[in-house]
Amino acid sequence: MANLETKYLGLNLKNPIIVSSSGLTNSADKIGKLVEAGAGAVVLKSLFEEQINHEINNIIYKGEGFDYPEAADYVKGYTRDNSVGDYLNVIKETKAKYDIPVIASINCYSSDEWIDFAQQIQEAGADALELNVFVLNTDKNSNSEEYEQLYVDIVSNVSRVVDMPVSVKLGLYFSNLVNVVNRLSVSGAKGVVLFNRFYEPDIDIDKMTLTSAEVLSSSADMRRTLRWVAITSDKIQNFDISASTGVHDGEAVVKQLLAGAASVQTCSAVYKHGPKVITEMLERLTQWMDEKGYKSIDDFRGMMSYSKIDNPVMYERAQFMKYFSSYE
């Protein structure tokens, strides 16, 4: 029987499947269903500084008569403490109920909050911390190095004040992703998640309004992740890559592990099919390993990474033109 145990960020996981940060992981009860289905770890729904401030502003705006600054300050402090307190309680309750690594997630835009939230999360008992960082650079006078340095600074500052392992969930918008991952690896991070799935805008041409594009991923979205997992896992040594976006079945799990992923994260598949899809992924992974004669994940992890295949150019963009050149 195949042994699915693995390590991610130094944590022992019973298998490499992690349910990523989402509404699926915002309570201990919901997490219980994921544990029952076989999840190896969970990333809690992100603690968003913007969301906390939005709640504060709503309360103050609706509370007409806040003529005293002290009253507004009290509301701000009370709301913030309760929002963060609720989040910390989810960590404590989950850790008390289930024997599974709990990875917290935070998303901030002010430097002080990154550090404050991270310290509180560690004290609550989280096993690791995933930094959900996204800065959209729209300044035509800035350069990529300034933009990328923000990520490095955040990781460096947070890693200095916590002992738990830290990972960073990244988007695609970098001129040199390998360089960014390498810089993060020497700035205190223990791993990265490739890739974050952001809100994407769309336009309703009848109502002439801005709307949200499709939120959930499809299995086709895995292709970009697969390429960069294969490249970064090969070029950045002793650093964990977690593959996210487009992981919808057991074959996708196998592919990402072959590319070099330390773990895989799934979310949309669980939204679409329920927690049972995790069980099905594990069954397919086990079946494939048994068919190939692999006893452990490490027996085959990275066998199809960038330098392990005969022609690494297959993972590069030039192959795009070669592929389509056959179609006249």
UniProtKB/TrEMBL annotation:
The protein's annotated pathway: Pyrimidine metabolism; UMP biosynthesis via de novo pathway
Keyword Flavoprotein appears in the UniProt entry: yes
Highest taxon of source: Bacteria
InterPro entries for the chain: Aldolase_TIM, DHO_dehydrogenase, Dihydroorotate_DH_1_2, Dihydroorotate_DH_cat
SUPFAM superfamilies hit by this protein: FMN-linked oxidoreductases
Tagged with keyword Oxidoreductase: yes
Coiled-coil residue spans: none
Domain spans labelled Dihydroorotate dehydrogenase catalytic: 4-289
Cofactor: FMN
Keyword vocabulary terms for this entry: Flavoprotein, FMN, Oxidoreductase, Pyrimidine biosynthesis
Stored PANTHER family: DIHYDROOROTATE DEHYDROGENASE (QUINONE), MITOCHONDRIAL-RELATED, SLL0744 PROTEIN
Name of this chain's protein: Dihydroorotate dehydrogenase-like protein
